Amino acid sequence: MAMKISKKATVIVALLAVLGIFTFLAVTPGVFANLNIAATTNATPNNVMPAIDRKCDCGIPANLSVGQTITITSTMGTFKVVGDPSQHGDASGTMTFTVTNALKAGYILTLTSGEIVINGTTYTITSGAAQTGRYAEALVGQGQTNPGGVLLIRADAQGNFGGVLTANLKLDFSTGSTEYIVVLAGNITG
To answer: How confident is the model over 101-133, as pLDDT tens digits?
Structure first.
């Protein structure tokens, strides 16, 4: 036998439930403190863009200036064709970025020139953009090439060895119906 609940009883139960939730929140103010990220002192530019600048304890933020150029030139590299691991070989490249904006959380860069050489074929960079966090230890971006191709870029600074800054450059490059994964190790100037 089903009981029929009146509309008035339903409203009272709903109001009591809401009152109970508000009472619980008032009595235990720290329960949801970890969810309120924007209001905490931990909301720094470091954790605004974790994909760009990993949680870096570098100490001093980078001091890049608008107009500054940064060039990454490979000293060694390799490529693989996506979906066909038997197609692989040597690759090389160079990319020059120009800082176009300096912001509190990092920098915006334009990919102004460069080239990628895959299996003897040269692809000239025609345009692109990237961004980096305030420590400038890594950058991500995208670009276009001639002959027609598009690429995703990830560069990570590796360290200073004997006064030479080094980096790893990882590219997801597609031209026509072929997609390549390119990994380059090289030097940074600028």
So the answer is: 999 999 999 999 999 999 999 999 999 999 999
Instruction: Rounding to the nearest 10 degrees, give the CA dihedral for residues 33, 39, 41, 46.
Output: 110
Q: What pLDDT score was predicted for residue 48?
A: 37
Q: Is 8 helix (H, G, I), strand (E, B) or coil?
A: helix
Cis amide prior to 147 (ω within 30 degrees): yes
Supply the pLDDT for residue 28: 39
Domains, in order of start, for the chain: 69-189 (2.40.128)
Strands 84-103 and 69-81: antiparallel
pTM of the model: 0.69
Return mean pLDDT, the chain.
Answer: 78
Interior/surface letters 121-146, b for 16+ CB within 10 angstroms, e for the rest: eebebeebebbbbbbbbbbbbebebe
Residue 10 and residue 104: Cα distance in Å, rounded? Answer: 52
**H helix or E strand, kind and range, residue 23:** helix 7-27
